[in-house]
Design a protein that fits this description.
about 100 residues; mainly alpha; rod-shaped
Length: about 100
């Protein structure tokens, strides 16, 4: 994690932080940092759970999609009686008025 920072540099940075913030503020800083890390981890896990749920739903939809045409193809088409064409009323009225 601290590949280029040695032990003495880490001690020096902690000493400077102690001088700047004081001994009374260090527990508050640690608490705030801990809460920030905890919140970050929680949001990452929630995002992963949401993504996994979305992938599962997409997988379910793709699994169901090929089954739909098979179900439709298995049902016979309904037979409809032939349609009798009739003369529209406007044409009938025009023919009667000419006569």
């Amino acid at each position: 994690m601290f590949g280029s920072i040695g032990f003495t540099e880490l001690i020096l940075v902690l000493f400077i932080v102690l001088i700047i913030f004081g001994a009374g503020k260090l527990p508050q800083l640690g608490e705030g940092l801990g809460k920030a890390i905890k919140g970050f981890k929680k949001s990452v896990h929630e995002a992963e759970a949401i993504e996994a749920e979305a992938q599962a739903q997409a997988q379910n939809q793709t699994d169901m999609a090929p089954q739909m045409p098979q179900q439709v193809a298995a049902q016979p088409a309904p037979m409809t009686p032939p349609v009798q064409m009739s003369i529209p009323e406007a044409q009938v009225a025009a023919q009667t008025s000419k006569a």
